[in-house]
Amino acid sequence: MRDKEHILIVGAGLCGSLLALRLGQRGFRVTLIEKRPDLRTVEQDSGRSINLALSDRGLRGLRMAGVEDQALSLSIPMYGRMIHPAGGGSSFLSPYSGKSENHINSISRPGLNALLLDQLDGLDQVTTEFDYSCTHVDLENAKAHFRNNRTGEQVTRHGDILIGTDGAGSAVRKSMFAQRDYLFSFSQQWLSHGYKELEIPPAEDGGYRMDKEALHIWPRGEDMLIALPNLDGSFTVTLFIPYQSDDFGFNTLKTPSDVEAYFKQEYPDALSLIPDLTQQFFDNPTGPLGTIKCYPWCGFEKTLLMGDAAHAIVPFYGQGMNASFEDVVELDVLLDRFDEDWAQVLPAYQEGRKQDTDAIADLAVDNFEEMKAHTANALFQQKRKIEIRLEQATEIDYQSKYSLVTFNEELSYAQAMKLGRMQDKALLNLLADGRLAGTEPLEEQVALIKKATQNLLQDDAVVKNL
3-class SS at 280? Predict the structure, then answer.
């Protein structure tokens, strides 16, 4: 057997940690370097976590590395969106799927990251180093330069292959962008909204103040509040509002009375659950929301971008982490296919994965509009009720767009996006035109939707061929 390569991984977040674990399990020597301190030994900054929604694609990656059960023990199942309508109406549950086994899982980002790092500690062939900021990458020689954040010491690390999993602000990607030996395309698109993280504390008895098996949403058109449950009885709450607005935006919420008045008008039930709202609001940072796309992801058959470094997305489909974990799965599949020949693996990986990550990036932006505005819309609710009934019917094969993306790991993101969008359009057109009431026999409903979807797919193919 030939000697295994030494893999240098820059960035020990979720993607980098899972990647290091899987490559270590395959027998590669791995050096994993992270710019931040070891999160298991330092207190985490408040206001930056955004709880994660772990679903089937991400679970597949954890299962591959043998840590699925441990991760699920840290999570809380969520079976749907609990909608809190404006005007004081009663909240109601909009299920994610008609199939009872389908749900997503609320999990702490640092908790999951710590689990993966703990697993790495048990692998002799994996070395982890913390507090080293990457300053420059020699792409052609798989070599990176680092600065020790505590001492200022400059060090260099070499590998046979270098993989950048260092997030949306990737230093590895910046080095690729600075290269002049090949063209590198890069785009970064910001939403007009930012986010502010808050917390609903546990009840006095340690229990939950709201239903813990749902992702809570307060859709308000341009604004939105969401809340995900934590194991300790608390909820991580995230407010999404425009940076600039004539009504309510970060530009108008300048004083404690401004914030209280805004919550009293828009989220009165949430206001009563956050006793120190104004202190949290002004203590916690305001975060931006953006999408990053770039290409190529690999260079010189030695360097590769993965995870958010290659395809950062907004969090509104709950697929950022899941997409990054799926990256690791897809790379693992190619290592098997090409007998661990990295010269073949790297270009095949970027060619096969790029269209899928572009698709989930676009779907995430689409879902932002759906969550903040459409979830409380009567036509949308009617559409979801029909989809849930069809998914509940065991004798019928039907999956909504959300299910195609979230619960069908065998379908690529690009395939799920194309089919799901056309299916949504077909269903909404049938409802708007009065051709579908939702009271017809289930087989008839499915036949109508599938025929209308197929017609739209054919029309789309014709237009693209013109």
Answer: helix
Cis check for the bond before 296: say yes or no (omega within 30 of 0).
Answer: yes
If you search the block for the tokens 């379908």, which residue do you land on? 411
The single-letter code of the amino acid at 245 is: S
Count helices and strands (H / E) in the chain. 15, 19
What's the confidence (pLDDT) of residue 47?
Answer: 62
Residue with the two structure tokens 């791995």: 30
Residue 365 CA, distance from chain mean position = 12
Domain ranges of the chain: 6-76+106-188+290-368, 189-288, 377-465
The rounded distance, in Å, linking the Cα atoms of 330 and 327 is 5
Coil, strand, or helix at residue 317?
A: coil
Q: Is 167 buried (19+), middle (13-18) or exposed (0-12) by CB count in 10 A? A: buried
Under a CB-based contact definition with an 8 Å cutoff, are residues 238 and 225 in contact? yes
pLDDT tops 90 at residue 460: no
3-state secondary structure of 134: strand
pLDDT tens-digit map of 15-41: 999 999 999 999 999 999 999 999 999
Mean pLDDT across the chain, nearest whole number? 93
- Return the CATH fold of 6-76+106-188+290-368: FAD/NAD(P)-binding domain (3.50.50)
Q: pLDDT digits over 100-131, tens only?
A: 899 999 999 999 999 999 999 999 999 999 99
pLDDT band at 178 (very low <50, low <70, confident <90, very high): confident
For 367, what's the count of Cα atoms within 13 Å in the CB-facing half-sphere?
A: 21
Q: Which of 270, 250, 244, 237 is nearest to 85 (CA)?
A: 270
pLDDT band at 345 (very low <50, low <70, confident <90, very high): very high
pTM: 0.94
Longest dimension (CA), the chain: 72
